[in-house]
Amino acid sequence: MEAIVLQKREPDGKFISVVIDTNEVGISITTTKPGKRPKTDIEGFGALKSSVDERVNELVGSYIAQGYFSEMPDAVQEPLDFYSAQFLDMNNVNAFLIDVRQAGIEMKDETGPSGLILNFDGYVATVKNNFRGVQITAHVPQRLRHLVVPVFYAMSARAVDVTASDADANAFDVKEAFRLEHRTGKVVAEAVSVLCNLGLIAKPIPPQAPRGGRVALSMSL
Fold first, then answer.
1. For 156, phi and psi rounded to 5 degrees?
2. Which of 164, 202, 205, 212 is most buried when burial is the number of CB atoms within 10 A of its CB?
3. pLDDT at 97 over 90
């Protein structure tokens, strides 16, 4: 099989890479962290409980759930945004999930290989415990920013910290990004609703109808 290369961006902008390949004895998983020597683990063919292809797919899915992304040509052609929200505990995460569902945002919570996965309409976020509490992360094509930014902005009402950066490790503010995306008209009404419910933006107030019968909605951030 052709080697599969996966990468994960660290908070400092550096990357951890994982190479999944096969050799004469089994499946090799080589992990390289910045400034450290590569470490290789081998899963022998005799110990596999499924076919090689099924196990490789399972491994790839596990790493993607941890925030890794594929380095294959069809993936690197599209620039990604990286999002992270830090919560104190699962109580705050569950409160956020209630906020989202009450606003009507499409989302399913599923159990993945490495923990809870939030499957939104168009992208996936992973939920993992860390030493600070619980972290939600996502890496999503920039063209979907209008879908992701409102959700991570909504997380800021419950989270202790929310960060976002583009493929060049340039950080951007989710509140300002939401304002820009909202101007495009692509942000769905459900996303605006959850932000209104959380008090992050003012509810749209319809002004008096101007001459000609048109009515425009205004919103303040």
1. -60, -20
2. 164
3. yes
